[in-house]
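Shipment paperwork, digital attachment
Item: protein structure file
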Amino acid sequence: MTDIKSKNITWHESNITKEDREKLNGHKAVVLWFTGLSGSGKSTLAHAVEQALYDKGCRTIVLDGDNIRHGLNKNLGFSPEDREENIRRIGEVAKLFTQAGVIALTAFISPYRADRDKVRALLNDGEFIEVYLQCAIEVCESRDVKGLYKKARAGEIKEFTGISAPYEEPLQAELVIDTAAITLEDSARAVLAFLRDRGIVA
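Attachment content:
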């Protein structure tokens, strides 16, 4: 679903550029795309990084998988087609936030490489930062406070990533964090260090 159905529309450029907004904010605008299995710590790390960035005076927003499915994507399920459309919409929303000069942190399983690559292609070079939360499925299951893995193994949840649906690991993520091996604090510090090294934040 990428074709534009409306024909009588015109793109309107803003008088204020993304660069103008970045200058006002004092930092670059990027998308931090946290990806990994359910229970790998995506939402937890995204919010920890957002807090650290907020404390530095940065403009941020977290787009969380469950939250988005309560509103924008509430009409989508978990079939491969719906997963693709879910990520397509989020990519477009994240792009809007970068144009507004904001650091967008997204926490989605986003299991398919092709879907993540399509989001990367929407953005300028260096604006899409793929953060792969590498975590053994046994560890993810041990953290499963919602009981999703148990339900998936019992056949109560269909097309559950890592059990009955695939997860395609990133091949060239900008950052790989083993959340089973290092603490949340160290994980957040690693992301902040990456942003400083790239000149995205001071």
